[in-house]
Amino acid sequence: IQKPSLIVCAGKTSFQRLTGRSDGILKVRGTWMSFTTGGATIPLLATLHPAYLLRNPAHKRLAWRDLLTLRQALDAH
C-alpha cells in the first residue's frame, strides 16, 4: 500500500485482519475508524463483502449507505 488517503474493507475478514478487532461486520459497517501503520493514521471504512450481498440481498441497502458515506469522504478530498 502506497500512502492511501483512505481504506475500504469489504467484508469481515479484511476488516479483522487490518484492525485486529473481532467485531462482526454488521456491527462496524458504515462507521469510520482509524488504521495506523508506519506512523500514519488512515481513515478506514468497513462495508459488506459483495459475496455476502449476493447471499443476503436484503442487506444491499446497508451497503448502499456505506457507499454514500464513502462518496462523501471522497468528495471532501
Structural description of this entry:
There is one protein chain. The protein is built from 4 helices and 3 strands, in the order βααββαα. The protein has one domain. 45% of the residues lie in helices and 23% in strands. A 3-stranded mixed beta sheet has the order 1-3-2, sandwiched between helices.
Number of domains: 1
Order of helices and strands: EHHEEHH
Number of helices: 4
How far apart are the termini?
A: 19 Å
Instruction: Walk across the major sheet and give the strand order.
Output: 1-3-2
How would you briefly describe this protein structure?
Helices cover 45% and strands 23% of the residues.
List keywords for this structure.
single chain, 77 residues, 4 helices, 23% strand
